[in-house]
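Pipeline run #58 for the internal structure catalog. This entry was flagged by the ingest filter as a single-chain record with no existing model, so it goes straight to prediction. Upstream metadata was stripped on purpose; only the residue string is passed forward. Reviewer on rotation: M.T. Logging verbosity set to normal.
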Amino acid sequence: MTEFTFREMFLQGWPILSILLIASILSITVIVDRFLAFRSAHLNAERFVGKILNIVETQGVNAALTYCGQFPQPVSMVVQSVLRESGNREAKERTAQNTLQAQILELEKNIPILGTTGSIAPFIGLFGTVSGIIKAFIDMATHAGGGVEVVAAGIAEALITTAVGLSVAIPAVIGYNYCVSRIRRMSGEIDVAVFRLIESSNLPGGQNR
């Protein structure tokens, strides 16, 4: 009886459940993809810039650029743009901000999918709930006095779509907040470290105002 009941619940709500299943797979894929991307992009910005300043002081800018070329992380890309910029301090700051923004946009790729999924999944589940309750009332009106079995399918559809909608939305919202927080923290760390690089007296143009 239990197996039949669960089977009927899914059969009754399959159109809504199919949409939620696709949304769930998509959001999980994005979460895993962004987690791997953040892991690959992580590099201690303060330590890296300290190393670059030491190389610039002892070996020159070209050696520092060669060292940066070994790292594909965002902080390395921003540092390279600063080292290649021959202008004054303002030009270096502008170049650093533009490069950092480009790196952040790359890290933000597909993250809006999580926000959208977290926002609409409960409403999709609610739509299934409403349609299930409507079906239950129609069945009740059609089979007056038929007992609880008459409305069981509609109520089951309403309950299962609500539960699945929430189970899809909650991980998506958590993943979205994690990604936004991780990007904000990484951006701030790079910004502070690169500012230290630009301010350095050993960097050509670093003291120009």
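catalog note: The CA atoms of residues 42 and 175 lie 18 Å apart.
catalog note: The chain has one domain: 2-199.
status: ready for reviewer M.T.
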